[in-house]
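ok so for the tutorial part 2 we go from a plain amino acid sequence to predicted structure tokens. step 1 is just haveing the sequence, like this:
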Amino acid sequence: MHLVRGMTTLSTRKRKSRIKTAAVLEEERKTAKLLKSLGYQKNASRWKADLPDYTVSETVPTSDLIIKVEGKRKANQYTGDELAGIGTLHKSNSVPIRKDSNDAKEIARMRRG
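step 2 — the prediction. this is what the tokens look like for a chain of 113 residues:
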């Protein structure tokens, strides 16, 4: 959105302070009492909880076991007795051709079975 000429986004006008009603003061007193009972402390203008104590008193026992590191897993390797080759169907779509099927005939007719 664009600003109208002569107007600014900085609002420098001082607002009037409103007088708090008795109901608002009573609710603020109840909230302060509740927060104090929960362990919060009033610090300047904010309520703040105490930080918990994170110091460690005892250490965890450790193990001196050394575990054997296994070698690299053997990779699967193709033996060459399953596929006859790779055919191209539509739009450079590579399709594997198996020896035991009629895929080569279907690719030659540009159809998939």
